[in-house]
Specification:
This protein is an alpha/beta fold. 28% of the residues lie in helices and 21% in strands.
Length: 202
């Protein structure tokens, strides 16, 4: 049975965090699109996301954390990239970095991971409450459009452990993605963060 709560409910992020910390799968609203969220250190929970989405295991999940120090647990951030992260985080920017040894372990041996600090009050409260990074990916079956409002999450009711109703996402568009594993950096997905602004720093 899926717990359904509003992000405006008292302690909504605490209830969601408890489910994530005990190995559950949450559907959460971010400022970009709705996302599945699991404990980054729970490999079984990660596998469930892939199964639910019918997603290729070759496609990585996205790391979300509450601050840069938490991100650094799992990825190595080059000096120039750090300046960009500090400029645009929290925000609608996903940056791909080389993994640390711990990052390789929790990501199934991947050499790089995309990371983002969201600019969403609910998500930042949730991340602080979980007190560790989470892995996320957009709410959809692979190759379909991402869920941008609560009504587009209904097909996963009864499958995930909790759905948090945040109405319609503020931007309703995926984050911009830059590969920063090596220079020159490459914008690999144009999203809701203006790339003209980004290019001043890349």
């Amino acid at each position: 049975m899926t717990l359904k709560i509003s992000e405006k409910d008292d302690n909504s992020y605490k209830k969601t965090a408890e489910i994530i910390k005990t190995g559950g799968i949450a559907i959460v609203p971010t400022e970009t699109v709705y996302g599945f969220a699991v404990d980054a250190f729970n490999m079984e929970a990660q596998k469930k996301i892939y199964k639910i989405k019918k997603r290729s295991p070759k496609k990585p999940l996205i790391l979300m954390a509450t601050n840069i120090d938490s991100v650094k647990l799992l990825v190595e951030i080059p000096k120039k990239a750090l300046a960009i992260a500090k400029r645009f985080w929290p925000g609608q920017l996903t940056l791909i970095f080389p993994t640390t040894e711990l990052g390789k372990i929790v990501s199934g041996g991947r050499n790089d991971i995309g990371a983002r600090i969201p600019n969403s009050e609910f998500m930042l409260n949730l991340l602080k409450e979980v007190d560790r990074p989470i892995f996320t990916t957009s709410v959809n079956v692979s190759n379909r459009k991402s869920a941008k409002n609560i009504n587009e999450t209904v097909e996963f009711n009864g499958i995930v452990d909790v759905i948090v109703d945040g109405g319609r996402c503020k931007f309703s568009l995926e984050s911009t993605v830059i590969n920063m594993v090596q220079f020159p950096y490459v914008i690999i997905r144009k999203g809701c963060l203006n790339t003209d602004e980004l290019l001043k720093y890349v």
